[in-house]
Design a protein that fits this description.
The structure holds two protein chains of two kinds. Chain A has helices at residues 2-32, 37-67, 73-101, 105-111, 115-148, 155-182, 185-213, 235-245, 253-278. By secondary structure, chain A is mainly α. Chain A has one domain (2-278). Chain A is globular. In chain B, 13% of the residues lie in helices and 45% in strands. Classes of the chains: A mainly alpha, B mainly beta. Chains A and B meet through helix 1, helix 2, helix 3, helix 5 and helix 7 of A and helix 1, strand 5, strand 6, strand 7 and strand 8 of B.
């Protein structure tokens, strides 16, 4: 029984952690800007995105639960592909923007030079938070619904386990906020930047998988190698790792090219950003 | 940004369009609170096929396989399916992501 409950704690935490990473890091970044009206504005957009995301998560979950049989397989694939690819693009854009303006955001905003650009970026923040919460949130809602609707194990302790998973998720969020406050900003930014870029890589990989599934992108080869002996990409731990990094145990050429091109693109983009700032 | 939102909602609408009935070789899989039957599935290689998922349990299940590039949430008591367009010869795994510690299923494409 404790195994079952452990799974509930883990699934609830895991389903929330991806959205919490995105929202938590963005919130910590904004908090670093200090108590300026612009940072407050950014936070409003961020949390509005979270709120709308929660509503959308419930709507999506209800669709999955009650109309799941009616939904077209290809339609769902297309929907998921567009959600993950847009989210990935927004994450990369956000990281580049923070690199360029993180330090100088306050001053530039005061001068009004970057104001209209910031306006567009706040909407990006809104959509990013919305997508992050809606995507994983819908699965959490389905999962919790299953527990509340009465599982085969004791409902009371299941609800307790789900609540514990939720508490752990919130603790993870606070850990991020503390990190943002007490670690050196350079270190915190570096680490969270890499986490976000890895997450975006995983979203790109998942997007390509959906496109392959739809027959839009071809599979260029059989699996090139097999590292599932070292680390599987399924199951509890492996699935978690692949969800946060885009890891594949048996990648084919299409996946490999996608992953390589993504990182090449990101590295070039960040180099250019840094060079521009130095100039 | 408006374009993005529009695209998102357009695909949401596409996603709600009714599924086509397809005449594909179909393989039934039962998912019951973390127990999947059968644990081994033989499917044709290089041809489309369908896996029909019957969730006979009281908790939701999530069919998930990175190798088959599919994930699908199935409500308790519901029937859903995934269409796999083609896989080359080999062995693939899938599992129930809502019961991640339960045994995985091997799909053998011949």
């Amino acid at each position: 029984m404790s195994g079952q409950l452990g799974q509930i704690v883990f699934v609830v935490w895991r389903e929330s952690v991806e959205a919490l990473l995105v929202v938590g890091i963005l919130n910590a970044w904004l908090a670093h800007q200090g108590k300026t009206p612009e940072a407050a504005r950014g936070k409003r957009f961020l949390w509005a995105g979270v709120s709308v995301g929660v509503i959308l998560a419930v709507v999506l979950a209800a669709m999955l639960l009650f109309f799941g049989e009616l939904l077209s397989d290809d339609g769902q694939e297309l929907f998921q592909a567009s959600m993950v690819l847009v989210a990935a693009a927004l994450i990369v854009q956000m990281v580049v923007w923070m690199r360029r303006h993180g330090r100088t955001l306050k001053r530039e905003l005061e001068e009004g030079a970057a104001r209209s650009m910031a306006e567009a970026r706040w909407w990006g923040l809104f959509v990013l938070a919305l997508l992050a919460v809606a995507r994983e949130g819908s699965e959490t809602v389905v999962f919790l619904y299953g527990i509340l609707a009465g599982g085969h194990i004791d409902t009371g302790s299941s609800i307790g386990a789900a609540a514990l998973g939720g508490v752990l998720a919130v603790a993870t969020y606070w850990l991020l906020q503390l990190g943002g406050r007490y670690l050196s900003w350079r270190l915190f930014f570096r680490v969270t930047e890499i986490m976000l870029l890895l997450l975006a890589a995983s979203l790109v990989m998942s997007g390509i998988d959906h496109l392959i599934s739809l027959g839009i992108v071809p599979v260029l080869s059989r699996p090139l190698w097999d590292t599932s002996g070292v680390l599987e990409d399924g199951g509890a731990f492996g699935g978690f790792v692949s969800g946060l990094t885009g890891y594949r145990a048996r990648p084919d050429l299409t996946s490999l090219i996608t992953y390589a091109v993504y990182w090449l693109f990101v590295i070039l983009l960040l180099r250019r950003t840094t060079a521009k700032k130095a100039a | 940004m408006r374009v993005v939102l529009f695209a998102a909602f357009a695909s949401l609408i596409v996603a709600t369009m009714p599924a086509r009935a397809e005449d594909l070789p179909t393989f039934k899989v039962g998912m019951k609170d973390g127990v999947i039957t059968p644990l081994r599935l033989e499917v044709p290689a290089d041809k489309p096929f369908k896996i029909e998922i019957h969730n006979t349990g009281t908790t939701p299940a999530e069919f998930e396989s990175l190798e088959l590039r599919k994930e699908k949430v199935v409500a308790p008591g519901a029937v859903s399916f995934v269409v796999i367009k083609r896989v080359s010869k080999g062995e693939y795994k899938f599992f129930d992501d809502f019961h991640p510690n339960a045994p995985q299923v091997t799909v053998v494409a011949k």
